[in-house]
Structure formats: C-alpha cells, structure tokens
UniProtKB/TrEMBL annotation, chains A, B:
Species name: Aquisalimonas asiatica
InterPro entries hit by this protein: ADH-like_C, ADH_N_2, ER, GroES-like_sf, MDR_fam, NAD(P)-bd_dom_sf
Protein's UniProt keywords contain Transcription regulation: no
Protein name, per record: Enoyl reductase (ER) domain-containing protein
Record's keyword terms, sorted: Oxidoreductase
Domain (Enoyl reductase (ER)) ranges: 15-334
Coiled-coil ranges from the UniProt annotation: none
SMART domains recorded: PKS_ER
PANTHER family: PROSTAGLANDIN REDUCTASE, PROSTAGLANDIN REDUCTASE 1
Entry GO MF terms: oxidoreductase activity, acting on the CH-CH group of donors, NAD or NADP as acceptor
Length: 342, 342
C-alpha cells in the first residue's frame, strides 16, 4: 500500500483522447485527515459525459483542470476511517475518479448494502445511468400506452434501461445499435420488441419497417445518422429527450455540409415536436421515487442489465475510446480493485 | 357584379412563387345555394404559412390543390343571404381565400361588430396572428417576470404582439428586424425595450449588447442567421417556441454546409433547452381566454399594432413575395374591396 495509481488529464484532447491526454501515473498514497475516510476503488464507471469534462468548452458542469485526476463515479471500500460513521470494510458509492485510492470527506458518500443488489449496479442500472433513463422518460418522454419508442445506443448503460421501462409502461420499444451481436442482445437478452443495426446498408428501411405506426418518442443518445433516419418517421407531437450526442463528442468544429439544421427545424415546426435537453442532476428530487420504482424491477428480474467490465485502471483509456466508438457492450466499468462481495 | 376575380394555384413553386404559380383569373360569380351566403371580400390576410400550402410536401395541413383558389383568412361582407342567421350588410371573419367573392355555408363564419374593434383586427392582432403570439407564449414560452425575450421578425404580425405581451408579463422584450426603419418602429411605436437590425454588420455584437442577462425565451419566426446569433446567448433552461421559419420557406433542398445541426443539438443538451414547434389551431380551446386577455389591451391602447395594407387583389402576389423577403411592415393585408366601416 505504498503508492496510489491515478489517471490525470495531462492535456485537453482535440478529437479522440488518448494516453497523451490521459496519463497514468503513480502518486503518494493519500492520507485521510481527521473526519475523512480512505477509499479503495473497486469499480470506476466510464460514461460518455466524461468527454465533455476533458474539454474547456462551456457546458453544464465545470471542466476537469489540466493536471487533475479525471473525475468519475466509483464503487469503493473503506480501508481506513477517521469518521465515526464509517468503518473499514464498509462499501460506498463515491465520486473519486480515475484512481485506485482517495481520501475524502464522507459527507457525499452513499452506503451500499450488497444484499440489496450487486454493488456494481450503484453506478449502473440503479445509479446515474438508470436514473437518467427513468427521469428522462417520466419528465420528458412522457410515454403513453401503445406508443412507439426508438432508443439509440440501445445496448448501452442508459439505452438498455430506457427500452425496458418503455415496455413496462406499455410501449413498443425499438432499439438501434451497432452490429448484429448487439442487436441480438437487445432483443433476446433485454427483450426489446425490435432492434435495428445502424451499420446495415438498409438501416433506414429496416428502421421504418420496425416502426409501422411511426415514432412517438425518440431517445437521443447519439445524433448523426441515427437521428436523421428517425426524423421522417416521427409522428405529430413526438418528443425527443436529448440525453447525449455521442456521435459528435469528438468533433472539433461544424462538420461538412449540407446543412441539415433547417430540415430539422421544419420537422419540429410542422409536426409540433418537443426537443428537450436534460441532465439527470437537475431532477435529484426524483431519485427516491426512481429507486422505489426500479429497484424492485431489477430484483425481480423484470428489468435486465448487462455490465461490460474491463480489468485494471491501466486499461481505462482504451476502454473509454471504445465507449466513444461504440465498442462497449452494456454498462462500461473498470474493475480497479478486488470486489470483496464476489 | 358580373364576374368574380380570384387567384388560383396554377403550379407548385420551387423557390419563390410568382405569377406563373399564382394566377389571377376571372370566373363566374358564385351563386349561393339554399342555406348559404354570398360573401364579398374586404380584406385578405397574407401570412407566411401560405407558402407551405403551395407545396406538396407533407405538413400539418393539406396542400392547396393545383387549380384551386389559394386559401386564406378574410374579412367579408354578406351581400346575399339564403340563411336565416345572416343578412346582407353583416360583417364576418371567413376563410374564403384569394378571391373577391365566395358562396359558403355560414357555419364557419364569425360575426364581427365594428364597434368592438376595427374589422381588420379580426385577421390581425385579435385574429390568428395575435392568438398565435398569445398561445405560443403562455403554452410554450412560459415567461417569468424579469426574463429576456428575443423576438425575431419583431415588426411582423405575430412578432409585434409577442414582444408587447412579454412586456405586459414583466419581461424585457428585444426585437430583431430588418433595417433601421423597422427597428425604430419596433422600439418607438411598439415600445420594445430594444430592437436589433439583422442586416447590420455588427448584428451579433448588437444582439449580445441588447441582452446583458442572456436570453430566456427565443421566439423563432425565421431560423437562419438570427437563430445562429441567439444560440450562444441562451441561458440554461431557455425555451424556443418555433412558430415559423421564414428564412427557409423557399429552400428547395438542404443548404450548403457546414452542417450546423450538431452544434444546435449541443446547445440543446448542455443548456437543457426546450425547443417546441406549435400551430395555433392545436390550442383552439384557449381562444376565449385569449380574446378576454388581449381585446381589452388593444381597446385601451396598451397593446399597439400596425397593419400594412396593399390595395387590390392584383397586387397580392407581389405583396406575398415581399412578405417572404421581409418587405412588409406590420400585419400584411390586401384590401380586395371597399371597407364599409371606414
């Protein structure tokens, strides 16, 4: 226990980040001050929003400073406690970032009980991605029985939950994913009504065929050509909760033309669409309701999920690159240290 | 009274419509059947939505058939009645289109009393354009005291009402209009807090200077470069009611690049914007409430308006071209026949 391992933002990436921007380094083991706890990272959650934090562009949250540890949600074990509320061996949801150890004030920690659910779900289906799916649907998607919901990035951490919740509420769930393996997973393992491969040369026709009654909710995780294929299928009064735009995160300027913005605006006007961006943390007041609704569905097995676990902090950068190019398969986690519950 | 004069859609325009698409022709005087009334057109309302009706593209309303009279709202006088409810000399709001006379079933007519308000207001500030402004603001803009509202096409039929209603509800109203004359009119005659000329080489800076606290509501009437200048000024949780896109109505395909769509989507996501298309007729249940709210403001003079009246049906096509290129100045009307109240 002599050294900490951590990944710091060494430089702001233009385009795809790599090891020159995200540097693995050794650092002295952090020492918990009075009232603090020393945490050992078990799982680090990798999420698309992190690309935004690497950039200096103005956004909804502060950028990570160059030279600082990359931020991120983590599942941790308390290894040393100077706080009366925590003991060594306790498990917690934290936000300690891309590193093996951190000394933190325990105020922001959430205690985890492995008997309730596997601890990795705290950064997945029962954590931020699951809550994102839930709150985006109830606040912005507003599904009505019998409607058709198209979910982009359907095999990802958020998408897999969106489609299953849509079905739970009586909707037809149509996923969009990259490649036949992911599509099979989305229909066979996650139980979506259909899933369409956006890499297929017949993608647009396949999507139209999967949505015989048009599209009432388009869950936007990606942008780009998936959005373009959905637009003509949208029904009047359709809703587009804008959760992510992963196809565009590495863009360094406006892409080449033609300019598709005015066509998009026409769809909005003539079909009276509602397009709404949202971030889960604006809706923190619904977290309790989310947990009450979704935890039982997970426990009963009605709501399924898949984690994609990469071993070792040294593989975090390539795993994150894979996330931005659609290589992950389910919720992407890095296992940084042993999981004592397994 | 031997002949009717009318303008028919002779061909679907690609780009700007002209006399080859909108043909003035003589036709037999229509004869009212039993139960019908013969109407003489006093005012024909010219509105941007009519460009959409000339096109075969799928939209929220049916296209006008080639060979049919162009549709449009009208203020008419009953000249012959075969209905017990109407008498010659009665005045009515109708939808008889671009023609001097029409025989219609009176069921869809709304009786007008010239003592309540000038009859031309029935297709203007107290008619469809005024209602569009009202319902777009209360349903979609949702103005809060102290917010900043930017109104594109501010000197037009809808824009002039949007800004004044915004002020009535405690907001700062900033207009955008084409040329110094219109801008002066918007501030001096309509009383907006500021108005910015989109033809000025310093337009973007001028707009930013007029919105020191950012923009909370952007009333979208135009699209194009006005929208592009507003986007960086939008505050978090800003709303964009999409009422029209006049900069794009004559486009025959996607414009040249760069492609600004992904940049627009990023603003939506990171600022959690709500962009919502709407058409006033979806909200017909609020017409009574609109009239009760706005008619007294018009009567008292708090809410001002300006009509731009062109004389003669033979000038309707050039007036409509002017509407699409920003030449009108206030609510555009064609006076087709004598106004007996003047």
């Amino acid at each position: 226990m002599a050294e900490n391992q951590r990944i710091v933002l060494a430089a702001r990436p233009q385009g795809m980040p790599d090891e020159s921007h995200l540097k693995l380094e050794s650092a002295p083991m952090p020492e918990p001050a009075d009232g603090q706890v020393l945490l050992r990272t078990i799982y680090l959650s990798l999420d698309p929003y992190m690309r935004g934090r690497m950039s200096a562009a103005k956004s909804y949250a502060q950028s990570v400073e160059v030279g600082s540890v990359m931020e991120g949600g983590t599942v941790c074990e308390v290894v040393e406690s100077h706080s009366p509320d925590w003991q060594a061996g306790d498990l917690a949801l934290a936000h300690t970032g891309w590193q093996a150890y951190a000394a933190v004030n325990p105020k922001g920690l959430k205690r985890l009980n492995p008997d309730d659910a596997p601890i990795s779900t705290a950064v997945g289906v029962l954590g931020m991605p699951g809550f994102t799916a839930y709150v985006g649907m109830v606040e912005h998607g507003r599904p009505q029985k019998g409607e058709t919901v198209v979910v982009s990035a359907a095999s990802g951490a958020v998408g897999q939950v969106v489609g299953q919740l849509a079905q739970h509420w009586g909707c037809r769930a149509v996923g969009v994913a990259g490649g036949p393996d992911k599509c099979r997973f989305v229909t066979e393992s996650m139980g979506f009504d259909a899933c369409v491969d956006h890499r297929s040369p017949t993608f647009e026709q396949d999507l139209a065929a999967a949505c015989p009654n048009g599209v009432d909710i388009y869950w936007e995780n990606v942008g780009g050509k998936v959005q373009a294929a959905v637009l003509p299928l949208l029904n009047e009064f359709a809703r587009i909760p804008v959760c992510g735009l992963i196809a565009h995160y590495n863009e360094t300027g406006a892409p080449d033309g033609p300019d598709k913005l005015s066509g998009f605006m026409r769809h909005i006007l003539t079909k009276r669409l509602t397009v709404r961006g949202f971030i889960q943390f604006d809706h923190a007041d619904r977290r309790g309701e989310f947990f009450k609704t979704v935890a039982p569905l997970v426990k009963s097995g009605e709501l399924k999920y898949r984690n994609d676990v990469v071993q070792g902090l040294e593989n975090a950068v390539s795993a994150f690159q894979g996330l931005l190019t659609g290589k992950n398969f389910g919720k992407l986690l890095v296992q940084v240290g042993d999981d004592p519950t397994q």
